[in-house]
Every structure is written in structure tokens, then in C-alpha cells.
Write a structure and sequence with these properties.
The protein is an alpha/beta fold. 34% of the residues lie in helices and 23% in strands. β3 (57-61), α3 (80-88) and β4 form a beta-alpha-beta unit. The protein is elongated. The termini are close together.
Length: 226
């Protein structure tokens, strides 16, 4: 199957034009007329995956391998070392990042993994209303996301609304209209701001909240006649 056909299918289910301006989703490595012999899906790409995959493999990942401006290809350093290995094996790479967050990932984790009933959704923030006790909510998060411990800011005993953004969503704090905000990569100054605004926050991990990408995209690709 041609890479162009797979790209078009992915663009249909999660348009690449939805990505944020700073993002680099879409075709990262490859040629649209190249024949794809195998598709491998993953949250990220690493050297072992490239080595184990056969020639002509297409990797579909969540996080783009190239972010920002590249001024040199030093094959001793990341990510150039991975790019060199992929090119030698005629492998291709497509990233589905902030476009897929909006169309699939956030809602899937919110509803299918955590079991919340979606009340409203902005592009990156899902919100639910209900009644949760502090311990009940934390036990749910630990179980469903496989988190042995949780970092909690601004603890509230009783919660009536929950918002969530997978990955690193603290920059969206001002958009949150809820008692509690679930996201990853909460830093010191984020915590200070949340406490000053009476917003409870729970760090659900960047990887832990996004690791469901592969199973979602795999389901979307199984219809293709490879």
C-alpha cells in the first residue's frame, strides 16, 4: 500500500490541519509514493524499534521526532541518529500529536479509560460534573492509569466537577472551569498558581495519560488492506 493512501486515511480521521502552530505532526520521514510493507504504532520511536522493524516499515507515533528548527544532522546525536537508521532502511514516519489529542486521545482517556461522562469539551480539555470524594477519585486514577503514587495540589474533600488534559496541559489552566484539573508535568509555579486560584490539581503523568495512543490508532488502521 502506498504511503499516500495511509496518510490520507489518517488525515481523514484526524485532520493534520488541526495541529497547533508549534507542532510538527504529519509526514516526518518518507516519500508519499513509497510502498509500505508494515505499520508499527507507538507513543514514541526509539532505536530498538527501528532495528527490529523490516525495510519499508511505516511508524505512526504520537510525539514528532523533529521539533523546531534543525540546523545540522549529527548522526551521533538524537534525533539525527534515528533519522539516519530509518533512511538506510527506507522506513517512514508519521506523527499525530496535537491534532489527535483533539479528535481522539483526550476524550478516549476521559471516557473509556477513566469512565467519566463527558459534559463538555474544548479542543484540549474534557470536563465532567458529578460527585466524587477525594479518596474515591485518587483510587480510581491509581487503578486506571497504573499509578502507584499521585502528586496532589490543593486537596479538596468533595469534588463536583473534573477537567482533564492528557500529556502536559498546565498551560491550559486558565481555560479550566472545574474543581479539579487532571494533567501531567505539573511544575512548581503551576502548583503555586493553582493553589492561589483554589484549583485542585492531580499529576496523572505525561506518559501514563498518553500511553493509550497506540491502541486507539491501531483500531483506526485495521481497516486498511495492507
Amino acid at each position: 500500500m502506498r504511503l499516500q493512501e495511509i496518510y490520507d486515511h489518517l488525515d481523514k480521521i484526524s485532520p493534520f490541519e488541526l495541529q497547533e502552530k508549534w507542532d510538527n505532526s504529519g509526514l516526518i520521514v518518507g516519500h508519499m509514493e513509497r510502498t509500505v510493507t508494515q505499520i508499527v504504532v507507538s507513543l514514541d520511536l526509539d532505536e530498538e524499534m527501528i532495528g527490529n522493524a523490516k525495510e519499508g516499515t511505516l511508524f505512526v507515533v504520537h510525539h514528532p521526532l523533529i521539533f523546531g528548527k534543525m540546523t545540522q544532522l549529527d548522526f551521533a546525536k538524537y534525533p539525527s541518529n534515528l533519522l539516519e537508521k530509518m533512511i538506510l532502511k527506507q522506513q517512514s514516519l508519521i506523527a499525530m500529536h496535537t491534532n489527535f489529542d483533539q479528535t481522539h486521545l483526550n476524550r478516549y482517556v476521559f471516557e473509556n479509560v477513566l469512565g467519566f461522562k463527558l459534559e463538555s469539551q474544548t479542543p484540549f480539555v474534557c470536563t465532567a460534573k458529578g460527585k466524587w470524594h477525594y479518596k474515591e477519585l485518587l483510587n480510581l486514577l491509581k487503578e486506571k492509569l497504573d499509578l502507584p503514587t499521585l502528586r496532589v495540589i490543593g486537596k479538596k474533600e468533595h469534588i463536583t466537577s473534573i477537567a482533564m488534559t492528557t500529556g502536559s496541559g498546565t498551560s491550559l489552566m486558565d481555560e479550566v472551569e472545574a474543581d479539579c484539573f487532571l494533567t501531567g508535568d505539573i511544575k512548581y509555579h503551576d502548583a503555586m498558581k493553582a493553589m492561589s486560584e483554589d484549583l485542585m490539581m492531580v499529576d496523572i503523568g505525561h506518559y501514563e495519560s498518553e500511553r493509550f495512543f497506540a491502541e486507539i490508532i491501531l483500531g483506526e488502521l485495521q481497516v486498511l488492506p495492507l
